[in-house]
Amino acid sequence: MTNARLPTSLELLGWSDFFADQIEPADEDLVPRRIASVHRARIEAIGVTGSVELELPANANTADFAVGDWVLADPSSDMFVRRLDRKTVFQRRPEVGRGQQLVAANVDTLLIVTSCNADFNPDRLERYLIMANQAGSKPVIVLTKADATDDVGLFQTQAEALQRDLPVIALNGHSADAGFLLRSWCGAGQTIALVGSSGVGKSTLVNTLTGPAYGSKQKTGNIREYDAQGRHTTTARSLHAIPGGGWVIDTPGIRTLYVSDITDGIDTFFADIVELAPLCRFRDCTHLHEPGCAVQAAVKNGTFAAERVERWRSLVLENRDRTPTISGPRGNKSVRKKKY
Ligand SMILES: Nc1nc2c(ncn2[C@@H]2O[C@H](COP(=O)(O)OP(=O)(O)OP(=O)(O)O)[C@@H](O)[C@H]2O)c(=O)[nH]1
Ligand SMILES: [Zn+2]
């Protein structure tokens, strides 16, 4: 440890070789900035000297930017010049409309937040895990409201069974212990993002992690706006500093999480099944009834449960139905690898 190099200010912001390698000689006069909040008409970014409002070209659409993005800007005008490739990106299909909605970028760890009550739903958690795998972020399940149940162990066991080596942390979001329990993912330069349904305690946890400064930091987001029905909703996402550590991105509650365009994530989550498919006698085996099916053989000998194969099949079908044919599961594979 004594020889450890101190991170530079940029590295404390989450900068790494992955981004440095994208800098070209022509970029010499530009400075890197990290996007801290995205609003309908403006974007705030953080640089080593503090936060700035990014100037955008007239044709820019703020929906193309994600909180956590790294961009290059002109230091004198703060004019946006170009966005650097993303190391990870978490996006989802909105309830209405087409395309994907950017949720957060360059997130090292995705905290999938659910509470120790009726919100706990293994099927939904499975979808989040697939999304995290697809995004390229490491998933951690956070069970909030552990103080309000006698069955924490039960929730914890069920969550741990979802994926091999999955960290599951049960906590009380109001308690300062929460920061201690999550410390291994919140180190200097690390970025975490919180996702989960409305009301599971994401904002509460962000408050606890960031300390009292968060509440007064109205400027950087978490603004409550009114939607069309006059309801109060959290619409903005934003990047907040964790004192003495990394960064946390709060995201609005997600009502319905659709599975679409996530072939790679499904393959990772169900790697045990996917790896067997090439051993089936028929190349187009549906693993339902064919002779010589390696997947059915594994179910028979108890390697995995028939329900797991069922869940895999239904997610593959849902993904196929919802993925536009232009960027369908097959077409995506070649362009999707690591470049977002
Ligand atoms: N007992 C207990 N209550 C909690 C805990 N975490 C959150 N709460 C309460 O649960 C309610 C909802 O918490 P929020 O933090 O607003 O939930 P959210 O996930 O940010 O909700 P959205 O902003 O709608 O996405 C609040 O009344 C919190 O005080 C916890 O760990 N224990
Ligand atoms: Zn088969």
Automatic annotation (TrEMBL):
Pfam families in alphabetical order: RsgA_GTPase
GO-annotated molecular function: hydrolase activity
Keyword vocabulary terms for this entry: Cytoplasm, GTP-binding, Hydrolase, Metal-binding, Nucleotide-binding, Ribosome biogenesis, RNA-binding, rRNA-binding, Zinc
Enzyme Commission code: 3.6.1.-
Positions that bind GTP: 144-147, 196-204
Domain EngC GTPase: start-end pairs: 105-255
Residues that bind Zn(2+): 280, 285, 287, 293
InterPro entries associated with the record: G_CP_dom, P-loop_NTPase, Ribosome_biogen_GTPase_RsgA, RsgA_GTPase_dom
Cofactor entry: Zn(2+)
Chain coiled-coil ranges: none
CDD domains, A to Z: YjeQ_EngC
Cofactor descriptive note: Binds 1 zinc ion per subunit.
CP-type G domain boundaries: 99-257
Compartments, record wording: Cytoplasm
Protein family (similarity comment): Belongs to the TRAFAC class YlqF/YawG GTPase family. RsgA subfamily.
Protein task: One of several proteins that assist in the late maturation steps of the functional core of the 30S ribosomal subunit. Helps release RbfA from mature subunits. May play a role in the assembly of ribosomal proteins into the subunit. Circularly permuted GTPase that catalyzes slow GTP hydrolysis, GTPase activity is stimulated by the 30S ribosomal subunit.
UniProt subunit comment: Monomer. Associates with 30S ribosomal subunit, binds 16S rRNA.
Protein name: Small ribosomal subunit biogenesis GTPase RsgA
Gene, per the UniProt record: rsgA
